[in-house]
Write a structure and sequence with these properties.
single chain, alpha/beta, Rossmann fold, six-stranded mixed beta sheet, three-stranded antiparallel beta sheet, 9 helices, 9 strands, 37% helix, ATP binding
């Protein structure tokens, strides 16, 4: 049973029997002969990938949920479904509140526009009015440390500048529910510290927060619940310490400083 199920208030997010299946025509090692045969017959090799497989959980208000698992476990697919970007193949998702997703850093930015213009686009996409976004523009710029570059086209930005602006846009739009995918990889050590402090602040203010990260140390520090996904299936939902310990045993590693950052 979810930890959040004991809360008297309705959950901020409720996921019921969620499955997401992709169909792809890609082959692992297609041979020239097989390709010619299929081309002659008008056939394509179709594979189904079960990215998320019958997953159910609830997240109560005030919860910061960490999502862990190996590459290909379905973490980012789940986040995109929660954000309304991917439709479920089966099951349902109920969300109470306005979501600000920070999935792949900078997704939705237009490289030909300035940083300032992309702040406006990001804020509008988050459901704010133009007036509300413009009132936050200086705050976003200052948080990202890009005062000197904010009117330059984003194609001139370094990857670190790009990531810092993406993170700043997401966390400064007062979301009800914040979804962050590997955001702590953005920027230098100073910015990472500032990002962690901001996320801790949002965790106390927002209705719920979701964090996908390979940094198990960040999950322990910032989250009060955790789920572990493996090949699209929910393996465990509980306290971060317990879930991370079970996950580390599963992948046969100990709780060293390296694994806390890199799993």
């Amino acid at each position: 049973m979810s930890l959040s199920a004991f809360s008297e208030s309705p959950p901020a997010v409720k996921v019921q029997n969620l499955s997401i299946t992709y169909r792809t025509t890609m082959e692992r090692v297609p041979t020239f002969k097989n390709a010619l045969v299929r081309f002659g017959r008008g056939e394509r090799a179709v594979r189904e990938i079960h990215a998320v497989d019958d997953v159910s959980f609830e997240v109560g208000e005030g919860t910061s949920l960490g999502i862990i698992g190996n590459n290909g476990a379905g973490k980012s697919t789940l986040m995109r479904a929660l954000a309304g970007i991917l439709p479920p193949t089966k099951g349902r998702i109920e969300v109470r509140g306005r979501i600000t997703p920070l999935l792949a850093l900078g997704v939705g930015f237009n490289n030909n526009l300035s940083g300032r213009e992309n702040i406006i686009l990001g804020g509008l996409a988050s459901g704010l009015s133009r007036k509300e976004v413009e009132a936050r523009t200086d705050l976003v710029t200052e948080f990202a440390g890009l005062e000197e570059f904010i009117d330059a086209p984003m194609r001139t930005y370094s990857s670190g500048m790009y990531s810092r602006l993406a993170f700043s846009v997401a966390v400064n739009m007062n979301p009800d529910i914040l979804m962050i995918d590997e955001a702590l990889s953005a920027g230098d050590a100073t910015f990472k510290t500032k990002a962690a402090e901001k996320m801790d602040e949002l965790r106390r203010q927002a209705r719920a927060m979701f964090l996908v990260s390979h940094s198990l140390g960040s999950i322990k520090e910032l989250c009060n619940e955790c789920i572990w996904l493996h090949k699209g299936r929910l393996m465990m939902h509980g306290e971060p310490e317990e879930v991370i310990e079970a996950y580390q045993k599963f992948v046969n590693v100990g709780p060293s400083a390296m694994t806390l950052d890199d799993l």
